[in-house]
Specification:
Rossmann fold; Methylamine Dehydrogenase, Chain H
Length: about 725
């Protein structure tokens, strides 16, 4: 078996060569003959994408299996027994809100149900906004960005964000929840990247890009305004601004049972964050609140007078150190008053070596209890934290119903901590999601169980570990047919491995939905590695593969593939990799570094040109994760793995399928375009498809999702499964 490092380092003979190459790439854009493909709406670029997309669709859709696959995916997406995705749900003021996409409403209906009714299993959904009717009336391709909905302090109004074609830029409109209509002459913003929060019923705090110079180099807003009802947003008072080379400036809500405070996040980067209190006519005041970027966007919650915070890094307060990965309680009144001492912060929960508190899963507050999802060797557990009379916190395990262990739990978090209950979802690779109502007392009552479109009763999941470079013990899940573990099978691997985001057992996998179900049903295996760079074991696991050590993540993926082969579960060349966004970058790296292992590679909305990623759309915001191509010492490791720069004419790469969206305003479609063009120019087979809408999700309705999924599945069947004979030692 070839040595990973030998193959990888064949591309660059030495550090000196790598650095020289970095300089040569960065010295002049003339080194890149495909810069014209970065012109998103350019006639030449769109002509090329249309030609290539038609070619790819013609080949894959001509496969006799395509129509059946598309029908199966569409049936899965439109199943009446399908539960709403948690990111399309929100909870406020006694109601649960959802976006319901249906065959006759592909853009969706914004609906609500009383929390008590929903918790009792009653499907009493009330439609507030018919998004399809709104789009038709206004001639815009509107979709609602559900996670950005913001409710007024009295619960009477909501700010509804409308996205054009799935882009991150939105137009926000004020909506009267009682009258069920948009407020005439209410708050309304132009289409732009923005973050917004209620100050009171007649005032908003908003950071928005109104003019090009009001954006950071990452494309996010850098100016915070206070906006009063009855005035235009451009007239709003500027409260604070940050330099353009910072990441963003955003208002957010900190709320406990007894206190509600509007604060401001000033971010130099994803990891360099400052919390401010800003008021009209007053200089900004820095507060000692160690918050996560993502958690702050969702709002911070707490109990009594304490906010609950997850630490990304060690936090030192007067020599008292709170460890990274922990949950701590912060005394909000003391922090706001500047009266900070050794008792201002207290430890709530510190995970052990096998545990982690997953990113994007902040504590959920119910009454006087905080509920936490804790990973234990990448399997979810549920814990309840309560503050004792002495001010110390106790944490106990909460039993989940029988048959709901060994998978993933997701809590529906809310910035309203006074609710009586919240929602908890359980799922794994082969078990359709079940929704439970979680009470203040820690009791779980089943609300709804999804109906699976594919029967996975005959499949099971096993977890394996492989020791990788440096002695790390990397876990991975394998899903296959019961009793069929003694033979190799065509294998689909999915991965991400960056930004501290864990990859968890899911019935519908990010970016690919139910694809693994269809793949299993047709005789394949599915693999999910939990490599370094993710957050499966907390911040240290993430930091192990950041910046200059990024290659570690790709070595981990390769080690998993090699372990699959060594165990007889798959074969070299019969493993396919699929990933989106950073996972799309991983697909490109593995295709160019380890073509001996991977026979198929699907790269979705990817980064691929790591010499220019920081110059394209939101790319500059990811410099802390990958490194800065403008700094030679940081450029060198970037250029060593950058797929676009490492295509060689004599390379024996698998035929890649690259897919993106014209409307992706997060990861520039030029990455996928240029990669496909360079592969083809050097004589390598490649397939390219670009959707005209969909944003970073590449599709905004069920029809688009089904089409994309069918294209990808046909490609995988052709590359990995056709002609496979498990009885032969090699194929």
């Amino acid at each position: 078996m070839p040595n990973i490092l030998t193959i990888r380092n064949k591309i660059r003979a030495s550090v000196i060569v790598g650095i020289t190459y970095s300089f040569s790439v960065l010295a002049s854009d003339a080194a890149d003959p495909y810069l014209w493909l970065e012109e998103i709406e350019g006639d030449r670029a769109l002509g090329w994408t249309e030609e290539q997309s038609e070619r790819t669709a013609a080949r894959l859709a001509a496969d006799p299996r395509f129509d059946q696959l598309k029908a199966e995916y569409l049936a899965s997406y439109q199943s009446e027994g399908r539960l709403p995705e948690m990111h399309l749900l929100t909870q406020a003021s006694g109601f649960v809100y959802r976006i319901a996409q249906e065959p006759d409403h592909p853009r969706g209906l914004l609906q609500r149900n009383r929390t008590a009714s929903f918790g009792a299993g009653e499907a009493a959904w009330e439609t507030l906004v018919d998004i399809d009717a709104l789009a038709e009336a206004e001639g815009h391709n509107w979709y609602v960005n559900a996670p950005m909905i913001r409710f007024s302090p009295d619960g009477a109004k909501a700010l509804i964000p409308l996205s054009d074609g799935g882009s991150d830029a939105v137009s926000v409109r004020e909506f009267d929840l009682a009258a069920k209509k948009f407020v005439p002459d209410g708050f309304r913003t132009p289409l732009a990247r923005q973050m917004i929060a209620w100050v009171d019923e007649n005032t908003l705090a908003i950071s928005i890009v109104l003019e090009p110079d009001e954006a950071t180099t990452s494309g996010y807003p850098r100016i915070l305004r206070q906006w009063h009802r009855g005035t235009g947003v451009s007239e709003a008072e500027v409260l604070h601004s940050i330099p353009s080379d910072h990441l963003l400036l955003a208002p957010f809500l900190a709320q406990t049972n007894t206190q509600r405070e509007l604060l401001v996040l000033a971010a130099r980067s994803f990891t360099d964050l400052t919390v401010l209190r800003v008021a009209s006519g007053q200089p900004p005041e820095t507060l000692p609140l160690p918050v996560e970027l993502m958690a702050s966007f969702m709002g911070l919650t707490g109990i009594g007078n304490e906010l609950l915070l997850r630490l990304d890094t060690d936090f030192d307060v007067g020599g008292k150190v709170f460890s990274a990965g922990s949950i701590i309680a912060a005394n909000l009144p003391a922090i706001l008053a500047g009266d900070v001492d050794g008792d201002t912060y207290r430890t709530v929960f510190t995970p052990d070596a096998s545990e982690a508190l997953p990113l994007l899963s902040p504590p959920t507050i119910l009454g006087t209890s905080a509920y936490l999802v804790v990973l234990d060797n990448v399997v979810s557990t549920l814990k309840r934290a309560r503050r004792g009379a002495d001010g110390q916190w106790q944490v106990d395990s909460v039993d989940v119903p029988a048959g709901r262990q060994g998978g993933t739990l997701t809590l529906l978090s809310s910035v309203n901590p006074s609710g009586d209950s919240t929602l908890l979802k359980f799922e794994n690779f082969t078990t359709a999601p079940t929704m439970f109502a979680l009470s203040q007392a820690g009791k779980l009552a089943k609300v709804q169980e999804a109906e699976a479109a594919v029967d996975l009763e005959g499949f099971e999941t096993k977890q394996f570990f492989v020791e990788t470079q440096g002695g790390a013990r990397v876990p991975y899940f394998v899903v296959g047919k019961k009793g069929g573990w003694d033979a190799a099978a065509p294998t689909l691997m999915y991965g991400y491995g960056a930004f501290g985001i864990p990859m968890l057992p899911s019935f519908e996998v990010p970016y690919i939905g139910p694809m693994h179900q269809i793949w299993l049903e047709r005789g394949g295996r599915f693999v999910l590695p939990n490599v370094r760079g993710g957050g499966e074991y907390g911040p240290a696991w993430h930091n192990a593969a950041r910046g200059a050590t990024r290659q570690i993540a790709y070595d981990d993926f390769a080690a998993v593939a090699e372990d699959l082969i060594a165990r007889g579960l798959s074969r070299a060349g019969r493993i396919g990799f699929v990933g989106g966004s950073n996972g799309g970058l991983t697909a490109g790296v593995l295709a160019t570094q380890r073509p001996d292992l991977f026979g198929a590679s699907i790269s979705l909305v990817p980064l691929l040109d790591m010499a220019r990623f920081h110059k394209l759309l939101a790319g500059a915001s990811w410099i802390p994760e990958y490194g800065n191509p403008e700094i030679p010492t940081e450029a060198e490791p970037l250029l060593r793995y950058s797929p676009y720069q490492n295509i060689e004419p004599d390379g024996d790469y698998p035929e890649m399928l690259l897919m993106t969206s014209t409307r992706d305003d997060r990861v520039h479609p030029g990455h996928a375009r240029k990669m496909a063009a360079r592969l083809m120019a050097q004589g390598h087979p490649a397939l390219f498809y670009e959707a005209r809408e969909g944003g970073h999700g590449m599709a905004v309705n069920d029809e688009g999702r089904a089409f994309n999924s069918a294209l990808q599945t046909v490609y995988l069947l052709q590359k990995l499964m056709d002609g496979f004979d498990p009885r032969t030692p090699a194929n």
